[in-house]
Design brief:
2 domains, globular
Length: about 180
């Protein structure tokens, strides 16, 4: 488990906030490196994964959130961020970059610097429509009844007749629709 992070003092710390930078696939490190070259504080949380080649197996640091990295900058300075090769956009709402709370970034930093095992997972809420993406029920769509660390209970309903069936699957096999 790990992190790729550099703590630089941003030019104007009072105006700088953390933002999410959406990158092209497999460009997270390159974008983070370019931002560091531009004196922008970055945070790229990673997780160890095993990669298999024909002749060897190796532990690699993969981005915890593929296609995303975090950067701390003044929202008036988006052009400099967006000009990095591999940047798709800065995550925005209503045309304005949406900041990420310092508490969320600090929590992620503590997680990736800890020895406890962790895995990425989508945010799921009870009642949400989900799809099973792996295993013998791949392609099945239903509603999430309950989810814990290992298992997810999914309801498969025929709403027209008010009947349903409940199935338990591996929690990592469930994705939001």
């Amino acid at each position: 488990m790990g992190t790729t992070s550099t703590s630089l003092n941003p030019p104007d710390a009072s105006a700088a906030h953390w933002y999410v930078v959406w990158t092209r696939a497999r460009h997270e490190r390159a974008v983070a490196r370019q931002l560091l070259d531009k004196q922008v504080e970055t945070f790229l949380p990673t997780i160890k994964r095993w990669s298999q080649w024909s002749d060897r197996r190796k532990s690699i640091d993969w981005p915890l959130f593929p296609c995303y990295c975090f950067a701390r900058f003044d929202p008036l300075d988006t052009r400099r961020i967006a000009s990095c090769v591999g940047v798709q956009t800065i995550v925005s709402f209503g045309g304005q970059p949406k900041p990420v709370s310092d508490v969320e970034i600090d929590s992620l930093r503590i997680l990736v610097d800890n020895i406890l095992p962790y895995d990425p997972c989508p945010t799921l809420s009870e009642g949400q429509k989900v799809s099973i993406v792996d295993g013998p029920l791949r392609g099945v769509v239903g509603r999430l009844l309950k989810k814990d660390r290992r298992h997810a209970s999914v309801i498969l309903a025929v709403e027209l007749i008010g009947q349903a069936a409940r199935v338990e699957v591996d929690a990592s096999d469930v994705r939001p629709l």
